[in-house]
Hints:
Layout: E1 16-18, E2 21-25, H1 31-39, H2 57-70, E3 73-80, E4 85-96, E5 101-109, H3 117-133, E6 138-144, H4 148-156, E7 160-170, E8 176-185, H5 189-204, E9 214-218, H6 221-229, H7 233-237, H8 243-250, E10 256-263, E11 266-275, H9 280-285, E12 292-300, H10 309-322, E13 329-334, H11 342-347, E14 351-357, E15 360-366, H12 367-370
Parallel strand pairs: 5-6, 12-13
Antiparallel strand pairs: 1-2, 2-3, 3-4, 4-5, 6-8, 7-8, 9-10, 10-11, 11-12, 13-15, 14-15
Helix pairs in contact: 3-5
Amino acid sequence: xxxxxxxxxxxxxxxxxxxxxxxxxxxxxxxxxxxxxxxxxxxxxxxxxxxxxxxxxxxxxxxxxxxxxxxxxxxxxxxxxxxxxxxxxxxxxxxxxxxxxxxxxxxxxxxxxxxxxxxxxxxxxxxxxxxxxxxxxxxxxxxxxxxxxxxxxxxxxxxxxxxxxxxxxxxxxxxxxxxxxxxxxxxxxxxxxxxxxxxxxxxxxxxxxxxxxxxxxxxxxxxxxxxxxxxxxxxxxxxxxxxxxxxxxxxxxxxxxxxxxxxxxxxxxxxxxxxxxxxxxxxxxxxxxxxxxxxxxxxxxxxxxxxxxxxxxxxxxxxxxxxxxxxxxxxxxxxxxxxxxxxxxxxxxxxxxxxxxxxxxxxxxxxxxxx
Length: 371
């Protein structure tokens, strides 16, 4: 079965292919492949996604074909050519030919293909076709306010966060989500394209451990302005104080140690430590254990996230702590909301101490084990 398409429907059907990944218009023959891909991780259990439950796969395709015939959506099956199998789906949707606008969404991938080059590659193909072939003036995205991973992914594409539509769309558990809206204009595409191509090149090339090139440098007049412009992304903004606030706070605490996170001379983030050995009396007043250095703030600019710089910065903080007399542990904390970095810290060996700093959950790890 194929969609009966009006001659006025735009854009035309197209198959896109690059680096072993093919996007081909979705058809009924993709049913088994889509079912298998969704079953890799039982993705339908994530309530804010568009992944069909097993018994809904056929209806999912039929809906996509109906929307295609109406001109509102062009859905693709994502094919791994080497494995000769479907690994997910993505779409152009909310298509508005009159203003040359498409949105990219309805995107999901088998769990085994997540956090790989596949999403970047698919987005690059769709964006390139939209801007360079279709002549789109704008490409948009819409993401659930609960889906922090997708928000980060869209931000890394170079899209701008337009705002939030509150109480906007129902989700599968009967609740109503807010929708975070993003867009990219044609004038912004050339820079974004260059950055995405560079990102794919980095993923394809063997990469040395970033810890070998990451350093924590004192903040200077030259780096201060750049640090104030660093952007943790929309998700990070809800997790960490602004760098301006942190630097102002450092001016009023003798134990604060703000540092620029540098990778081969490039500013990639900001960290602020609390060193109890500088003024132990102040540390006692602040109720910070004297055998510790705390990581008060840690942020990596959204354009550099996913490259290992956060882990490397923690390693450098441990190196700093090891030079301080009597310090045996590195401590930090996180806000207990969805999207928090607790799992990242646990991978580095940090464990919850049972303490709280306000609403934040405190974690600690031995300095010796981090070296």
